[in-house]
């Protein structure tokens, strides 16, 4: 098996971190656990500035989501790689 070095946090937790203390606690715990294990963390589904702010405060390493970029059509990807 391949060694795991990045732990992804599902968007189901990320979407609720602003209004749901339990989701916030879960995300905070995942980030801390990953840090202790020497792993990086990626939060999926980041859609708001508030979510991004909270995740940055918690020490997230990477984020993915519509706040940063929308999906790119396949035919446009090659233009970015040139």
Automatic annotation (TrEMBL):
Pfam families: EAL
CDD domains cross-referenced by the UniProt entry: EAL
Top-level taxon: Bacteria
Residues spanning the membrane: none
GO MF annotation: an example: cyclic-guanylate-specific phosphodiesterase activity
SUPFAM superfamilies named among the record's database cross-references: EAL domain-like
Start and end residues of each EAL domain: 1-82
Name of the protein: EAL domain-containing protein
Species this protein is from: Aquifex aeolicus
